[in-house]
Amino acid sequence: MTIRPLRSALYLPANRASAVEKARRADCDAVILDLEDAVAPEAKVDARAAAVAAVNEGGFGHRILVVRVNALDTEWGPADITALAGCGPDAVLVPKLCHPDEAGIYRQQLGTGPELWAMLETCIAFTQLSAISAKAAAAELTTYVMGTNDLALEMRAKLDTARAPFQPVLAQAVINARAYGLSVLDGVFNDIGDEEGLATQCREGADMGFDGKTLIHPKQLAIANAAFSPSAAEVRTAQSIRDAFAAPENAGKGVIKVGGRMTEILHLREAERTLALHAATQRNPS
Ligand SMILES: CC(C)(COP(=O)(O)OP(=O)(O)OC[C@H]1O[C@@H](n2cnc3c(N)ncnc32)[C@H](O)[C@@H]1OP(=O)(O)O)[C@@H](O)C(=O)NCCC(=O)NCCSC(=O)C[C@H](O)C(=O)O
Ligand SMILES: [Mg+2]
């Protein structure tokens, strides 16, 4: 089993050159060059050119290079998509997905090159997420990204560390992603100085089943990487489950006891995933 880690995805405005340079060396699994909400309207055209130049220049190493475009119904969206389809980042992230047919339209505009990712950040999307997800998967969309700031604005809900009003939609995002074989990333944590709050929210996201977290500052990367990586204890447990099922005395058994716990074949599958994720995260930073 091979796994592509997505523990940490760092956003930055595409037109901030010093941040683009830092992102090329940052300890993250994905870099998201933003053309949407982090870029002022008067800077949109220059930011698009900067994103295309950054993609063409490369230098992001193992990091998945993503560009977040403006929505197709804005004055910048169509030209963003055309420019990105032409230069080929690893993925294009589209904002504010609302309707079941949208992913197919984006895919058509984008062609078969880059992966298609989409933000879940509108109330209307959550009223019809199963229909959206079925059609998104058919359009080969690979990844959902939570947009909790936009969602908070639309819901008129308070976005604090505990995120109580958002628990149902966070779970819905994970369930839909898993049902259709997509990756799913948790939303950003705005308080850059609050490391404890970020760690709490990362742990919650990992416990809910998210693959990783979107982040807004390099200071946040280590906390997310740690929270979404298997711990040493989890790796040991996974190894002992794999060893136990491989032991001759357990050949052909569907359920055994490992470390005092009932352990079934489904737990072996989970253990294999843990070990694959662990192996995939043991690379040297480059
Ligand atoms: C939030 C920031 C504007 C803060 O910037 P600043 O005050 O300049 O921070 P620092 O002084 O701490 O910066 C120190 C150096 O670090 C680099 N830096 C900062 N942030 C990043 C980053 N994200 N990636 C890479 N490098 C970064 C700076 O370049 C400084 O270097 P130097 O200039 O050489 O001194 C800023 O952090 C920022 O812009 N963050 C990203 C904001 C963003 O992209 N927002 C859009 C995505 S969030 C969102 O919209 C989610 C979703 O849609 C929703 O609805 O929830
Ligand atoms: Mg948003």
Automatic annotation (TrEMBL):
Residues 7-218 form the HpcH/HpaI aldolase/citrate lyase domain. Transmembrane segments: none annotated. Its cofactor is Mg(2+). Pfam families: HpcH_HpaI. GO terms for biological process: regulation of cobalamin metabolic process. Substrate binds at residues 68, 121. Keywords: Lyase, Magnesium, Metal-binding. InterPro entries: Aldolase/citrate-lyase_domain, Citramalyl-CoA_lyase, Citrate_lyase_beta/mcl1/mcl2, Pyrv/PenolPyrv_kinase-like_dom, Pyrv_kinase-like_dom_sf. Mg(2+) binds at residues 121, 150. One of its GO terms (molecular function) is metal ion binding. Belongs to the HpcH/HpaI aldolase family. This is CoA ester lyase.
